Amino acid sequence: MSRRPIRILGLDPGLQHTGWGLIEHDGFRLRFLAEGVISTTPAEDLPDRLLALHRGLAAMIDLHAPEEAAVENTYVARNPDSALKLGQARGVVVLAPALAGLSVAQYGAMEVKRAVVGNGHAAKEQVQAMVRHLLPGVTFKRADAADALAVAICHAHHRQSKQAIARGYQPA
User: Fold this and answer.
1) Is 81 noted as a catalytic residue in this protein?
2) Active-site residue (options: 12, 35, 68, 147)
3) How far apart are the C-alpha atoms of 80 and 58, rounded to whole Å?
4) DSSP string, 56-95
5) Can you name the residues that pair with 34 across neighbouring β-strands?
6) Which of 159, 163, 166 is nearest to 8 (CA)?
7) What gap in Å lies between CA 8 and CA 66, rounded to an integer?
8) Could you say which of 10, 46, 80, 153 would form a disulfide bridge with 148 (CB–CB 3.0 to 4.6 Å)?
9) How far apart are CA 16 and CA 38, in angstroms?
10) Any catalytic annotation for residue 62?
């Protein structure tokens, strides 16, 4: 049985660096398509940074035509001002694919690590090594892009499980 491949966009939100990674999943195999980072500088005003983030995401979505998106939930408890700014950036990261008509799934960091590595407390290096293993030929310039690819892989695994449950699949 052949399945039509689906393009999944993974997003790792950040105000200074938002990572993105695009994979293709046919139900059996994962294939790396593209990755990158959209960056802003702290010298810019917050509205300009958020606008740059939105424009970068919209252009990337137009160029690569993903069919679904997944975003990592962010948890910051150090500085309230930084948390508010990150929350605003995350809002843009969730909104951009939604405005493009994509469904947007959201996963916690531990859930992503568990789906990719098998351990919700895995180190960043373990996640990056597993992303390289699952996506042969992948290269990423920044850890933010590797994290985004991990989010996309997590979504591919979760959507496959949801589809199996919807079909009434019962393991032996």
Assistant:
1) no
2) 12
3) 28
4) HHHHHHHHH--SEEEEE-----S-HHHHHHHHHHHHHHHH
5) 22
6) 159
7) 6
8) 10
9) 8
10) no
Check if 72 is active-site. Answer: yes
Chain length of the chain: 172
Gyration radius from the chain CA atoms: 16
- The single residue of 67, 72, 111, 125 carrying the catalytic annotation is 72
Closest CA to 57 of 15, 96, 11, 91: 96
Cα 46–chain centre separation: 23
In 3-state terms, what secondary structure has residue 116?
helix
pTM of structure = 0.90
The tens-digit pLDDT sequence of the chain (172 residues) is 347 899 999 999 999 999 999 999 998 899 999 999 999 999 999 999 999 999 999 999 999 999 999 999 987 667 888 889 999 999 999 999 999 999 999 999 999 999 999 887 888 899 999 999 999 989 888 999 999 999 999 999 988 666 665 667 555 5
Q: Which residues contact 47 (CB under 8 A, 6 or more apart)?
A: none
Question: Which backbone phi and psi does 43 adopt, to 5 degrees?
Answer: -70, -20
